[in-house]
Amino acid sequence: MTTWKAQMDSLIGSAVARSKVTDEVVVGAGTLAQSGALVRRMTGLPRALVCADEAGFQAAGPPVVASLKAAGFAVQTHILPVTPLPRASVEEAEPFRALLADDPDLFPVSVGSGVINDLVKYAAYRTDRRYVTVATAASMDGYTSAGAPLAENGFKVTIPTRAPVAMLADLDVIAAAPAEMNGWGYGDLAGKVPAGGDWILADALGVEPIDDIAWPLVQDHLRGWLAGPDGIRRGDRDSVARLFTGLTAVGFAMEAHGSSRPASGADHQIAHMWEMEGHSHRGQKVSHGAAVSVGCVVSLALFDWLLAQDLGRLDIDAVLRRAPTLAARQSRLSEAISDPRIAEKAKLELAAKHAPPDVHAARLDTLRGTWPELRERLTGHLYRHNAMVEMLRHAGSPAYAAQIGVSPEHLRTTMRAAALIRRRYTIFDLLHDIGQTEAAFASVLATLAAGKREKAI
Ligand SMILES: [Zn+2]
Question: How far is the CA of 292 from the centre of ligand 1 (A)?
Answer without folding.
Answer: 7
